[in-house]
């Protein structure tokens, strides 16, 4: 893709050309050096560390090569599979909630509604709220036994459903995290959907109307098919984000109650940072990388397929 | 809600102006209610931060008193705004702002400089470098933080500002975003500058930078939000208050038997205010930068 941007070589005198190249190298080098030291090097060394029993704080005994033991330990650890399953559960729950709500708001904002820019600004506010702040607010909303969610539950059920310890009950901790995560992040999907909706040509709707399609039919047969690429993109991005789930878990539940909100990154953090088992944690990091890689490749494949 | 959920539903209908006006009013009222419900948690946060009694905050949360404060007080902010003590939030906020400004300014500069060379330079091997950068972009931060921690410890940068700035200034994603903008600049502009005898840095600085404000703003906003919200990395790399950012500071309210909700609320408001100011000033840029981060996908 850079080919057509390459200017023809040989312009200017030879000395100027050389001086220009030195300057270019000096401009390129700082960014490349930082990326090499702080991204490429740790990435490559995680593959080496994962094959050793290295500790975070080095011990007097030098680390030993252990082959694939770390991977074997992880894959035979029940807790890792629980963490993986939790992340999958989180993804399956957060996808419809977050993307569905994002699409609904995008559809509303895509009308000729007055003050739509003001509304767009308001609906986007949660997306710029830091997850740590979101945790502070939602911890009080989920509070047991008198928080707003319990009050609403009590009113809606005419006092039949008792107060729920949202973040402390194994059945409800994950759905609670799903709700607050969806609230924080839907703004991004909303903006992406809005861009997708604005790319649908008006003529498609006019044609459908001429054919006598009602509003519901126009939505299912014009809007939804036209949003196909947007759906795929949103699906992939949300899935990747979900697999990196950590901050809310670390702050609100520490993986509990009874491991029901443990996640892959939280498992890695606990193994590597809390328990100092760097080799083991690096193996988890590599597994995480391959999960993200596969999900991204699926997206590339699906999108290219239809072009 | 379904009546306004379709672009065609509010298409001009000149024959019946009066009912249409009413339907618009109803639509605005309905959407306003929805918007208020959705952002009510932020409103609750602002109200609660003005209540000095932490038990009152919790007691009020379950009723409509959560939306109202009878005698607003800035006591929580006064308590939290210290530069020493158990949780010095003044210092945390300052730390976060320092990290933010250096990362964003340095990041925009270094990434755009590299992008310029990749797009218009004559250095050999640019195509290879670009491909490598695109491949590296996929590596999630989460999967490199632990080896990164050992590197940072080894070079003696642990618990420092540099450890929170240097690893995130340069980024394949932002180089690529700016690169995509630069290659669309017409050839003539570059040629005209070369004829004048300007070197690469001069062309970059006085020709390309001034016409690239949209993409630079995009990168600044995305990098800014990312930096402001960093949590996992500073949680691991900061051991003292010296360089600890406000995100980790707020999180340390949790994990005790009783949370000081009044202080947590005030600290959270303090963390939101800088973002809100930027958001209100540059709302359009915020939204469009999120779109361009999506399109590159």
Write the layout of secondary structure elements.
The complex is a heterodimer of chains A (307) and B (297).
Chain A: H1 14-49, H2 69-75, H3 78-109, H4 116-123, H5 131-141, H6 148-156, H7 173-198, H8 202-210, H9 215-226, H10 228-243, H11 247-253, H12 264-274, H13 278-306
Helix pairs in contact in A: 2-13, 3-7, 3-10, 5-11, 7-10, 10-13, 12-13
Chain B: H1 17-48, H2 54-61, H3 75-80, H4 89-120, H5 126-136, H6 145-154, H7 161-169, H8 172-182, H9 187-195, H10 200-208, H11 213-228, H12 232-237, H13 246-251, H14 261-281, H15 283-295
Helix pairs in contact in B: 4-7, 4-8, 4-11, 5-8, 8-11, 11-15
Short description:
The complex is a heterodimer of chains A (307) and B (297). Chain A is mainly α and 307 residues long. Chain A is 69% helix and 0% strand.
List how many beta strands of chain A DSSP finds.
Answer: 0
Helical run tally of chain B? 15
Mean pLDDT of chain A: 88
Strand content of chain A: under 5%
Oligomer: heterodimer
Overall shape of chain B: it is globular
Question: What is the CATH domain class of the largest domain in chain B?
Answer: Mainly Alpha
Helix content of chain B: 55-70%
Order of helices and strands of chain B: HHHHHHHHHHHHHHH
List the uncertain runs of chain B: 1-17
Question: What descriptors fit this protein?
Answer:
heterodimer, A: 307 residues, mainly alpha, MetI-like fold, 13 helices, globular, B: 297 residues
């Amino acid at each position: 893709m850079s080919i057509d941007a390459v200017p023809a070589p040989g312009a200017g005198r030879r000395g100027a050309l050389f001086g220009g190249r030195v300057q270019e190298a000096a401009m390129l080098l700082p960014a490349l050096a930082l990326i090499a030291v702080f991204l490429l090097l740790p990435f490559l060394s995680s593959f080496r560390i994962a094959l050793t029993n290295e500790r975070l704080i080095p011990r007097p005994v030098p680390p030993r090569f252990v082959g694939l033991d770390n991977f074997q330990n992880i894959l035979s650890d029940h807790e890792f599979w629980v963490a993986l399953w939790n992340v999958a559960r989180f993804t399956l729950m957060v996808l419809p909630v977050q993307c569905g709500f994002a699409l609904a708001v995008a559809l509303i904002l895509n009308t000729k509604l007055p003050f739509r820019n003001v509304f767009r600004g308001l609906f986007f506010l949660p997306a710029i709220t830091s997850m740590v702040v979101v945790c502070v607010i939602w911890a009080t909303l989920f509070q047991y036994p008198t928080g707003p969610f319990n009050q609403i539950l009590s009113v809606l059920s005419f006092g039949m459903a008792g107060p729920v310890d949202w973040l402390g009950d194994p059945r409800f901790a994950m759905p609670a995290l799903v709700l607050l995560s969806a609230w924080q992040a839907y703004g991004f999907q909303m903006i992406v959907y809005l861009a997708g909706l604005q790319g649908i040509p008006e003529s498609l709707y006019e044609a459908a109307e001429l054919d006598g399609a009602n509003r519901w039919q126009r939505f299912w047969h014009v809007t939804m098919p036209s949003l196909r690429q947007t759906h795929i993109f949103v699906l992939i991005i949300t899935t990747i984000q979900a697999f990196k789930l950590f901050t809310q878990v670390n702050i609100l539940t520490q993986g509990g109650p009874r491991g029901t909100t443990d996640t892959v990154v939280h498992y890695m953090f606990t193994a590597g940072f809390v328990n100092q088992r760097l080799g083991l944690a690096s193996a988890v990091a590599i597994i995480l990388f391959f999960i993200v890689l596969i999900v991204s490749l699926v997206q590339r494949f699906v999108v290219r397929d239809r072009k | 809600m379904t009546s306004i959920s379709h672009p065609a539903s509010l298409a001009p209908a000149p024959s019946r102006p009066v009912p249409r006006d009413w339907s618009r009013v109803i639509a605005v009222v309905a959407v306003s209610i929805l918007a208020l419900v959705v952002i009510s948690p932020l409103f609750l946060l602002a109200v609660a931060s003005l209540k000095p009694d932490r038990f009152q905050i919790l007691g009020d949360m379950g009723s409509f008193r959560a939306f109202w404060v009878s005698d607003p007080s800035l006591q929580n902010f006064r308590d939290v705004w210290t530069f020493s003590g158990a949780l010095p939030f003044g210092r945390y906020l300052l730390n976060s702002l320092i990290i933010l400004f250096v990362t964003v300014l340095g990041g925009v500069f270094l990434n755009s400089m590299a992008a310029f060379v990749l797009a218009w330079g004559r250095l050999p091997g640019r195509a290879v470098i670009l491909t490598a950068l695109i491949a590296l972009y996929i590596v999630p931060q989460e999967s490199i933080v632990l080896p990164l921690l050992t590197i940072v410890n080894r070079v003696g940068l642990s618990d420092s500002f540099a450890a929170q700035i240097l690893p995130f200034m340069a980024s394949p994603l932002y180089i690529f975003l700016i690169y995509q903008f630069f290659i669309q600049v017409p050839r003539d502009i570059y040629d005209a500058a070369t004829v004048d005898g300007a070197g690469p840095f001069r062309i970059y600085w006085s020709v390309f930078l001034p016409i690239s404000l949209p993409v630079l703003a995009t990168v600044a906003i995305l990098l800014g939000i990312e930096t402001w919200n960093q949590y996992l990395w500073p949680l691991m790399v900061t051991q003292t208050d010296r360089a600890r950012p406000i995100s980790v500071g707020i999180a340390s309210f949790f994990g005790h038997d009783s949370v000081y909700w009044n202080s947590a609320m005030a600290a959270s408001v303090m963390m939101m205010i800088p973002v809100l100011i930027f958001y209100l000033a540059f709302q359009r840029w915020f939204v469009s930068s999120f779109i361009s981060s999506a399109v590159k996908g």
